[in-house]
Specification:
The complex is a heterodimer of chains A (about 190) and B (about 300).
Chain A (H helix, E strand, L loop, with lengths): L14 H9 L3 H23 L2 H18 L9 H19 L19 H4 L2 H13 L3 H12 L4 H8 L3 H21 L3 H4 L1
Helix pairs in contact in A: 1-2, 2-3, 2-4, 2-7, 3-4, 4-8, 6-9, 7-9, 8-9
Chain B lengths: L2 H14 L4 H13 L1 H22 L5 H16 L3 H12 L7 H19 L3 H16 L10 H5 L5 H27 L7 H24 L4 H22 L12 H12 L2 H25 L5
Helix pairs in contact in B: 1-2, 1-3, 5-9, 6-7, 6-9, 7-9, 7-10, 7-11, 9-13, 10-11, 10-13, 11-12
Classes of the chains: A mainly alpha (about 190), B mainly alpha (about 300).
């Protein structure tokens, strides 16, 4: 079963050439890059930070960094991985600046407690529980899910973006799976998930 | 890692379509028989749908791109680091007390004249560090600088202002001392670079750094007094130690102390090193002070 990602960069866009054009100082190329990857960059930053305003700032800082660093792009791996690596770095910096109390809070982070069993059985409620389960993951684990499912990246590309070993990506995915399953079981959704 | 664990790790990428062909067939065969992986696959599929639904519906504002471009344009218009340093230096020179420049030159000239007249090089050695100390002690701070509050309200950091002024005044004093040494060379033979450094450059660097650090805590007159006393003490002890063996310094261990003190002043590397430490201390203090400074804007 494959899910076709909405917003996946079209195959005809030569991303390497796009980076080269940015390195040459072509502003239109930066606009093209934003058109292709802006949403993905924003979604990733928002997933890590949980704050739309901070995510906007991260995307802005990342675009400036791309403009300044495009000449240093070596062409190893997919340009998307290089780009998301920049976004990841900027998002981590923003995360360090962010007050502790708001780190794991999102506006949709509704408590699952208090639901009646019959309410939980509806599809809508199942999704709400899953939504909360994802929101309860740490920024690192949410980031990996974002890169896998929305970024459409391979294991190696994610390791490149996060600048960590393959085993770390695998262990984060394993932890995310266990955590999601545990959260859903605590909310009576085991049967529905299988 | 057994086959089950290997395939279980592949499941998220199977769902996203990022799995390589060679792993795809093996995983699909494994899924036919493994209930645990089937359950995990269902979990990942729902998770993928949820992540996609959340992220795909997000809309990034065009304003973000425009803000990034505005920032890029702004940074492109900024002058380079060297140009900024020169600009800062040029803006700080008029803010330094104006009397420093002619007074320093005059005192050096008097020292030079005295040295030539009485044929004693010690007058040049004496005046160079003292002139430098005076200039540096009166360099910065609310007592010295009517533009201090204005400078404090600008984006330029106090440490940068301090460094710019230090560079300007110290370079001026260095140039004065070098000019006087060169002018005196027909009368007193040059001792080479090492001799030059030993006699006044290293003590000058140490004493000015000390005066700078002290001037951040106390008034310029006090900040000048301590380095002056240290330097005059060296010159006095030098004179006494050349005196008769019946000198009072031979009693009570004072001779050892005075010898150690003179050795300290005759060690240029130690003096330059200590000068560097004191300068770093002054800059660190300014950085700390900057955080405590109430901003006007």
């Amino acid at each position: 079963m494959e899910i076709v990602l909405e917003g996946t960069p079209p195959a005809q866009v030569d991303e390497t050439r796009l980076i080269r054009r940015i390195a040459a100082g072509e502003e239109a190329a930066l606009r093209d890059l934003f058109e292709v990857h802006g949403q993905r960059m924003y979604a990733y930053a928002l997933r890590v930070l949980g704050d739309p305003s901070a995510a906007d700032d991260v995307v802005q800082e990342s675009l400036v960094a791309v403009w300044q660093g495009a000449a240093r792009y070596r062409g190893d791996g997919r340009p998307a991985a290089w780009l998301m690596g920049i976004v990841h770095f900027k998002a981590l910096n923003a995360l360090r600046r962010k007050p502790l109390e708001s780190l794991e809070e999102t506006e949709n982070d509704l408590p699952a407690k208090g639901m009646l069993p019959e309410e939980k059985t509806s599809k809508r409620e199942q999704r709400a529980v899953l939504h909360n389960a994802i929101a309860h993951l740490s920024a690192d684990h949410r980031a990996v899910l974002e890169l896998v499912f929305y970024g459409g990246m391979s294991l190696h590309e994610i390791a490149e973006v996060l600048d960590c070993p393959l085993g770390t990506v695998k262990s984060r995915l394993a932890y995310a799976r266990a955590s999601l399953r545990g959260y859903m079981e605590r909310n009576g959704l085991r049967e529905e998930m299988e | 890692m057994n086959a089950h664990e290997k395939y279980r790790d592949c499941l998220p990428f199977y769902v996203s379509g990022a799995l390589e062909e060679k792993e795809l067939r093996g995983l699909e065969a494994h899924l036919q028989t493994c209930l645990e992986c089937q359950a995990d696959l269902a979990l990942w599929q729902r998770t993928a749908e949820e992540v996609l639904e959340q992220s795909a519906t997000l809309k990034v504002s065009e304003k973000v791109l425009e803000s990034a471009l505005a920032q890029i344009h702004f940074e492109q218009k900024q002058p380079g680091a060297l140009r900024r340093a020169v600009d800062l230096l040029l803006t700080q020179i008029p803010l330094v007390r104006r009397e420093i420049w002619p007074a320093s030159a005059l005192i050096m000239l008097i020292g030079f004249a005295a040295a030539v007249l009485v044929q004693m090089e010690v007058f040049i050695e004496l005046t160079a560090p003292l002139v430098a100390v005076w200039g540096i002690a009166a360099l910065y701070g609310p007592e010295n600088d009517p533009a201090f509050e204005l400078a404090a309200s600008t984006p330029t950091k106090p440490t940068q202002i301090l460094l710019a002024r230090l560079a300007a005044v110290f370079s001026y004093n260095l140039a004065l001392a070098l000019a006087v040494s060169l002018a005196a060379s027909p009368v007193f033979p040059l001792q080479g670079l090492n001799g030059l450094i030993l006699t006044w450059l290293a003590p000058m660097a140490f004493l000015t750094a000390l005066a700078l650090l002290l001037s951040l805590w106390m008034s310029p007159s006090n900040a000048m007094s301590i380095p002056y006393l240290l330097w005059l003490g060296k010159l006095i002890l030098e004179g006494i130690s050349f005196g008769s063996e019946g000198s009072a310094l031979y009693y009570g261990g004072l001779l050892e102390i005075s010898r150690a003190y003179l050795q300290f002043w005759n060690n240029p590397m130690l003096l330059l090193g200590l000068g560097g430490v004191l300068l770093a201390g002054a800059l660190l203090y300014m950085r700390w002070f900057d955080h405590r400074l109430p901003r006007l804007v």
